[in-house]
């Protein structure tokens, strides 16, 4: 069995960039790696509905914290068998966002902390009820909300189809979300968290060797 490793952080933190660099570093160490990003836009009807709701379609759907949380969870539920198969076939399954994104964002939307009701609702729904695999380790790519916002803004201006969505446009939400992520990491929510300073340059070679020492899932 391989290791399920998750990258978490704010919109624009640099998760996708880190994932790309980490794949290269892990392969250089001889590991086989499979990557997947949530939400699975273009592959899951739930993810496509999320995208549309975050771009102001589907009436008041995006206003419902639990409704949106459920769509994210259903997208992952549909991917659970594939993740389990990948864990049997690869040394590392690297995910760009996973269950903790749902915990952090929905808690932030409700002005709750990591000890609040919605974080436990996410755990109960996704881990207990849907039986999603628990990550071997979670990486919090930590950057100030202002820097993540600036990077997301730059990306929106330079890449097509990356106009900021409802969550990305809400600076206060991102600031609260950063706090919930810190709390989840401090509580080792679901598993151990590595905190990475995303404002500095990341030593992906060292990170890769550390991750290969993590117990298999
Ligand atoms: N370490 C970094 N320094 C400067 N810019 C970065 C860094 N990491 C990512 N970026 C840029 O910031 C933007 C957001 O990065 P991305 O990896 O897409 O973030 P995320 O996946 O967390 O939303 C992209 O335009 C990317 O090129
Ligand atoms: C995966 C996931 C994302 N989110 C949020 C985080 C982001 O603000 C938003 C979209 O995810 P994101 O991966 O940032 O997509 P994009 O490619 O559009 O930047 O959804 C949740 O609230 N719960 C989840 O389970």
UniProtKB/TrEMBL annotation:
Entry annotated with the keyword Hydrolase: no
Any GO MF annotation of the entry: dTMP kinase activity
GO biological-process terms attached to the record: dTDP biosynthetic process; dTTP biosynthetic process; dUDP biosynthetic process
Record bears the keyword NADP: no
Gene3D superfamilies: P-loop containing nucleotide triphosphate hydrolases
Keywords tagged on the record: ATP-binding, Kinase, Nucleotide biosynthesis, Nucleotide-binding, Transferase
Domain Thymidylate kinase-like intervals: 7-201
Alphabetized InterPro entries for the sequence: P-loop_NTPase, Thymidylate_kin-like_dom, Thymidylate_kin_CS, Thymidylate_kinase
Pfam families associated with the record: Thymidylate_kin
GO cellular component: cytosol
Record-linked CDD domains: TMPK
Catalytic activity: dTMP + ATP = dTDP + ADP
EC number: 2.7.4.9
Family as reported in the entry's similarity comment: Belongs to the thymidylate kinase family.
Role summary: Phosphorylation of dTMP to form dTDP in both de novo and salvage pathways of dTTP synthesis.
Listed name of the protein: Thymidylate kinase
Organism: Amycolatopsis cihanbeyliensis
Gene this protein is translated from: tmk
